[in-house]
Inverse folding.
């Protein structure tokens, strides 16, 4: 099932290449650990590393002019984050995004210049990296299209189904451990839109509100609201 594209999925062949290269010291990497709430980088930082996650979940997001934030992606273990260092020195700009640990995170920091040299001389790694970056671009494109076509209630229903899948909660009752503000940030909408959507879903007996979480009580009804944003594999 695919719905809202928020979670970057690892590409096993690329992950295997990177992990082997780090283990054999062909890619020089510094291990690091972050507690929930810690940052890999912030908006405005001059990033010279690419980070390979080995554990945990990192939220990539932007700050908005009205004081809110918009989630771009959640990165899972086995994915890469941070590519500003690949730009030529004269064209390099500070990060426009924040990368914040949602859970405890373990990662390798790989110097971008060194990583770039490695990709130039290892064709398989370069090819799988291109696939990975193209998939991220496709995810952003799909989300932009969805945001322009589908109403908030439909996209919100699809988001809840996506989160249930990512948290391995495929059957009711399924707990979605986020409050309304966090869910609004994921969709890039005002919190009032999420509050209204929760009320609508409660009225159709799809969800129930718990403190700091939502509980999906009827997957079938929720899928019927999400409609064409859900694609069954």
């Amino acid at each position: 099932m695919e719905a809202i594209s928020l979670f970057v999925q690892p590409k096993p062949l690329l992950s295997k290449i990177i992990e082997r290269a780090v283990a054999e010291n062909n890619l020089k990497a510094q291990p690091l650990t972050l507690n929930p709430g810690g940052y890999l980088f912030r908006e405005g930082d001059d990033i010279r590393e690419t980070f390979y996650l080995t554990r945990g979940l990192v939220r990539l997001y932007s700050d908005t002019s009205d004081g809110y934030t918009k989630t771009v992606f959640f990165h899972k273990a086995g994915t890469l984050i941070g590519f500003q260092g690949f730009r030529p020195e004269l064209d390099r700009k500070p990060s426009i995004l924040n990368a914040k640990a949602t859970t405890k995170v373990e990662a390798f920091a790989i110097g971008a210049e060194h990583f770039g040299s490695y990709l130039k001389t290892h064709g398989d790694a370069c090819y799988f990296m291109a696939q990975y970056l193209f998939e991220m671009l496709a995810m952003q494109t799909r989300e932009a299209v969805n945001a322009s076509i589908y109403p908030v209630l439909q996209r919100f229903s699809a988001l809840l189904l996506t989160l249930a899948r990512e948290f391995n909660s495929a059957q009711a009752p399924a707990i979605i451990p986020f409050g309304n503000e966090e869910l609004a940030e994921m969709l890039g909408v005002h919190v009032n839109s999420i509050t209204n959507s929760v009320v609508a879903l409660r009225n159709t007996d799809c969800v129930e509100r718990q403190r700091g979480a939502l509980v999906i009580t009827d997957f079938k009804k929720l899928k019927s609201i999400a409609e064409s944003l859900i694609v069954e594999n």
Notes: The longest strand covers residues 49-55. Helices lie at 12-23, 112-121, 123-149, 152-166, 180-187, 191-203, 219-226. The chain has two domains: 7-147, 150-229.
